[in-house]
Write a structure and sequence with these properties.
Helix content is about 45%, strand content about 15%. It has about 230 residues and is an alpha+beta fold. It has one domain. A hairpin with a 2-residue loop joins strand 1 and strand 2. Helix 1 runs antiparallel to helix 3. The longest helix is centred in the first third of the chain and has 29 residues. About 5% of the residues have low confidence. This is DUF547 domain-containing protein. InterPro entries: DUF547. Keywords: Coiled coil.
């Protein structure tokens, strides 16, 4: 019995390693530092990715991960990666496209479209975000999941891993907040913030306390640029 359990956990670990290794390889090949509309960001070569058979391999590896057998930070990291892979897939499936919202329709927003399969279920981006990740109570997930747009947090150029997750999330938060015209910046008595802090204010709590903004400062929210974070557009 003990041998069976050990074998089971080895197989599960290998499955996790498979998808993470493939995701890392694709990110290193198709994601790079760039600039669009005056914003420094990570851009993605969706055209190249669409033609790479390893992306289909990645989707198959994600599908067979046994999520019932992982927990804690490892599970959270898996769902962050899966959300990001799903967002990339949404673009790849509809490429060329000006922005992720264009993949939706009048009848169903892009966030409610089923896009990525795990086990025997196909998940939408909205379901992963609102019914899984936000329920962890960790507001830092908002700096890690991406919407393939200029104003969203950057796609990290390596996968999230359970044993490194706390550090990775804090790094993403700091990186996002330091990006002028995207995260947060001060100009005189005005503090400009990403609309992410407005849309998910219930997750961040008192935004002035969270970001250390004094009461004598006025808060304004930046326009959100939904343009694609694509290399070739």
């Amino acid at each position: 019995m003990k041998k069976i359990l050990i074998l089971f956990f080895i197989v599960t670990s290998l499955t996790m390693a498979d998808y993470l290794d493939t995701w890392d390889e694709l990110l290193q090949k198709y994601a790079s530092a760039g600039e669009k509309d005056g914003v420094t960001l990570v851009v993605v070569d969706y055209r190249g990715l669409k033609q790479d058979l390893k992306f289909e391999k990645l989707l198959k590896e994600v599908r067979v991960v046994e999520i019932k057998k992982i927990e804690g930070d490892e599970l959270k990291a898996f769902w962050i990666n899966t959300y990001n892979i799903g967002a990339v897939k949404m673009i790849v499936d509809n490429y060329p496209i000006d922005g992720i919202k264009d993949a939706g329709s009048v009848f169903k927003s892009v966030w409610n479209k089923e896009i990525i399969e795990v086990g025997d279920k196909i998940y939408s981006l909205g379901e992963i975000e609102n019914k899984i990740l936000r329920r962890t109570g960790d507001e830092l997930i908002h700096f890690a999941i991406v919407c393939a747009s200029v104003s969203c947090p950057d796609l990290k150029m390596s996968g999230y891993r359970g044993e490194e997750l706390d550090r990775q999330l804090l790094e993403q938060k700091l990186k996002f907040m330091e990006e002028k015209n995207k995260g947060i910046y001060r100009e005189g008595d005005i503090v400009y913030l990403s609309k992410i802090f407005k849309w998910y204010k219930e997750d961040f709590g008192n935004i002035r306390e969270y970001l250390g903004i004094s009461e004598d400062k006025k808060i304004k929210y930046l326009d959100y640029n939904w343009g694609l974070n694509g290399l070739n557009l």
